[in-house]
Amino acid sequence: MDGAFFLVSKLVWGLLRPNTLALALAVLGLVLVWRGRRFGRWPLTLGLGWYAAVFCLPVAALLTLPLENRFPRPATAPPFVTGIIVLGGAVEQRMTAARGIPALNGAAERMTEGMALALRYPEARLVFTGGTAALDQSGPTEAETARLLFTQLGLPANRLLLENESRNTHENAVFTHRLLNPQPGETWLLVTSASHMPRSVGVFRAAGWRVVPWPVNYTTGDDPALWWDNPFPTRLNQAEWALREWVGLTVYWLTGRTGAWFPGP
């Protein structure tokens, strides 16, 4: 069942991701209008309208802010931490394999913050969870890149634990819970992008785990001046990522992978 869910989710999102769909609609509409089909104006307007809205309006920020503000960092850091869980999604495992050095993407703060917390809490274990999210599962895993990065940064091997089979956020939670078997009274920090935190907390709760959210990788702020800082291509990617999270929250809730549509503190 989980295999079918993974396959369908990858295929559907690949076809319907907003930026790609908008471009396809615009091209389709343009061809239809050029051939004299008046109804082609509708897909043309819808496709170009998405790009125009993201360009002229703070669409990306308004979609992202509720996600990033949902779980603030604890006002006071815990005095003792059992372990630090870093979710995958910040490493580029194929580029790492191609070049031989750890390659990170725009969510790199997941990794740097995980290492900073490991230094702050020297008794805590650092746990990285991530296999590969690609349809082709034969390639290198994110966990392999994480091992290379953390050990090169000086983390002792006996403090690092890797979960290398998960393909999505639901499996991150389920497989890591199974691996660690957390006990009552333990404190586990969950490190992931702020916009990804609501869905992540939801699936960890559904797996029976009350983690402490530790969000990173903020992409916007409450000050409207920040809403226009990023160039247009970055705002397109930000808007698409936020929509992906909203869709993911809805699908996870409808399929029972979270207990609430929009998990909160």
From TrEMBL:
Question: Is Protease there in the keyword field?
Answer: no
DUF218 domain boundaries: 83-248
Keyword Transmembrane helix recorded? yes
Transmembrane residue ranges: 20-36, 48-67
- Keyword line: Membrane, Transmembrane, Transmembrane helix
**Matches recorded under InterPro entries:** Cell_Envelope_Assoc (IPR051599), DUF218 (IPR003848)
Name of the molecule in the record: YdcF family protein
The organism named in the record is: Falsiroseomonas oleicola
